[in-house]
Design brief:
Length: 137
């Protein structure tokens, strides 16, 4: 897979490599595991850090499946009981969560108004066949 890098960098914009390291670092400290498919990260040019309302249009339609919510409720509750802000979740260009479903549900459970998000951005130079392969458009 070809990775595309942005020429522009600023304090709220990070590279795909940063996100891969960030997610893998979280996985080691927030319950183990690894990123299911790095392709979901590498398909983006970069990611922009934002603070988004939990009741925003972007996040309002994203929920865990009931069986997963039931299975993972103890972990979600454990996170919700923490007093510190959550690390940002990671959302792709297709508006799907790449990493952070438990943190999102925990923030909802404890009544947070906002959550920090790294949202994927794709450069206009990404070929159409890659867009179609990854996101269906």
């Amino acid at each position: 897979m070809i990775r595309y890098k942005s020429l522009k960098e600023n304090k709220n914009k990070v590279t795909t490599e940063f996100i891969l390291n960030y997610v893998n670092g979280l996985k080691s400290g927030w319950g183990g595991g690894s990123l299911a498919n790095p392709k979901w990260v590498l398909a983006h040019t970069n990611f922009v850090k934002k603070k988004i309302k939990l009741k925003s249009k972007l996040l309002n339609n994203i929920h865990m499946k009931p069986d997963q919510l039931k299975r993972d409720y103890k972990l979600i509750k454990k996170y919700a009981d923490m007093k510190t802000p959550f690390p940002p979740i990671v959302i792709g260009i297709d508006k799907e969560i790449i990493d952070g479903r438990h943190r999102l549900e925990s923030a909802r459970l404890r009544g947070d108004e906002y959550i920090e998000v790294y949202q994927g951005v794709v450069d206009k130079n990404v070929p159409n066949e890659i867009r179609k392969d990854l996101w269906g458009y």
